[in-house]
Design brief:
With 291 residues, this protein is α/β, with parallel strands linked by helices. It has a single domain, classed as Carbon-nitrogen hydrolase (Nitrilase/N-carbamoyl-D-aminoacid amidohydrolase, 4-Layer Sandwich), CATH 3.60.110. The protein is 24% helix and 28% strand. The chain has five helices and 15 strands. It has a six-stranded mixed β-sheet with strand order 5-4-3-2-1-15. Helix 1 runs parallel beside helix 2 and helix 3 packs parallel to helix 4. The N and C termini lie far apart (50 Å).
């Protein structure tokens, strides 16, 4: 296919897991009605962002993948003929949990999952308490409409992750994410943080000649202390913004992605061709010093 219609669902969540799943399904239907062929949901969309605290009870939110949520979404994917990208809290075994995204093809089949590789441990983002780093490596999935690469939230800061995913043949890069502002911060700090977040992801688009789709949650959580900043966006293969969501509204948008543009961009801006792969061995070091 030369073009694909991508649906992006930016929504707020509640403490009710079933309510969030039901709402996401409604949003997927809205996107499909607008012509979407691939629909991306935000990170951990079945719950509030629970990693603001270290609470053992929150492990009860996890589920197997495949499991109840993927089962429900597979039915919807098959009915609507759409690919669904679903970010979920995975219970792999007793005491072993991951931040994981499942990919469901347009015929309802389960294509597999990607487990988040980079796990933060910041104030209000205590993910290392909950998530084991991914052990599946970087992944691409051949769906009906495109070969897609999936990375998750904190992965978005790492050019190495996007590069490897691009080199595996991804035609579109997707980033389900959950990031926001501490509501005590000043507006200048808020702008700086959001601009850094958008800029790094657009740079992955430029460096790899790939469209990037970043889908963030929105709304106040953590008893009003955190405003998830929305601002979901899509770029073309040169990093140009095709769509930019608001910071405070739920939005379901469908964006046209031209899959042929990557070839044109890579010919005229041949960053992949000019890579000096013979010089990159030091990148595997923690830091380049004498130790």
């Amino acid at each position: 296919m030369s073009k694909v219609k991508v649906g992006m669902v930016q929504m707020s969540c509640t403490a009710d897991k079933q309510e969030n799943l039901d709402k996401a399904i409604v949003k997927v239907r809205e996107a499909a009605a607008k012509g979407a062929q691939i629909v991306c949901l935000q990170e951990l969309f079945t719950s509030l962002y629970f990693c603001d605290v270290e609470d053992y009870d929150n492990f009860d939110l996890a589920e197997a993948i495949p499991g109840p949520s993927t089962d429900a979404l597979q039915v919807v994917a098959k009915e609507l003929g759409v690919v669904i990208i679903a970010s979920l809290f995975e219970k792999r075994a007793q005491g072993l949990y991951h931040n994981t995204t499942a990919v469901l093809d347009a015929d309802g089949s389960y294509l597999g999952k990607y487990r988040k590789m980079h796990i933060p441990d910041d104030p209000a983002y205590y993910e290392k308490f909950y998530f084991t780093p991914g052990d599946l490596g970087y992944k691409v999935f051949q769906t009906k409409f495109a070969k897609i690469g999936i990375l998750i939230c904190w992965d978005q800061w790492y050019p190495e992750a996007s590069r490897i995913t691009a080199l595996m043949g991804a035609e579109i890069m997707f980033y389900p994410t959950a990031i926001g502002w501490d509501t005590t911060q000043d507006e200048e700090t808020n702008k700086d943080q959001y601009n850094a977040w958008q800029t790094i992801q657009r740079s992955h688009s430029v460096a790899n000649g790939l469209p990037v789709i970043s889908v963030n949650r929105v709304g106040f959580e953590q008893e009003g202390r955190m405003k998830f900043w929305g601002g979901s966006f899509a770029t073309n293969a040169q990093g140009k913004l095709l769509y930019l969501a608001s910071h405070d509204k739920e939005e379901t948008e469908v964006v046209d992605i031209d899959l042929t543009q990557s070839d044109y961009i890579r010919k005229h801006w041949p960053f992949l061709r000019d890579r000096r792969i013979d010089s990159y061995q030091p990148i595997t070091k923690r830091f380049i010093d004498e130790d």
